[in-house]
Amino acid sequence: RTLPSGHDGGLALTGVAELLATLHEQHRHLPSRSEWLKMLGRAGIDHWAEGYSMCSSARPDLHAYPCALWLLFHTMLAHSTQAHAMQTIYAIVSYVDVFFGCADCAGHFGNLP
């Protein structure tokens, strides 16, 4: 419900679904790196961008992860249907509250209107 499926016609979402199905079929430990790369290739997700400059920073230890995280959240909300928008927002707020490493930042985010 929250993954984008626009410009690529849903191919990325289909590839992710194939990966998930493969993992469920295996019912075992996580795949090794080589197994994972083969699974990505079979799902058609084997070509990654050479570089990613959207969240580059002079201080990547402070900025890269939060920037990429906010971009992910924006993408999830931008592609969420109106019927699922609040569910997406609650999932994002819950994720930040539980998993974000900066407690002050998570508290500030949770208090935004």
UniProtKB/TrEMBL annotation:
PROSITE patterns: ERV_ALR. Its cofactor is FAD. Keywords: Disulfide bond, FAD, Flavoprotein, Oxidoreductase, Signal. One of its GO terms (biological process) is protein folding. Residues 58-113 form the ERV/ALR sulfhydryl oxidase domain. One of its GO terms (cellular component) is extracellular space. It is an enzyme of class 1 (oxidoreductase). Its EC number is 1.8.3.2. This is Sulfhydryl oxidase.
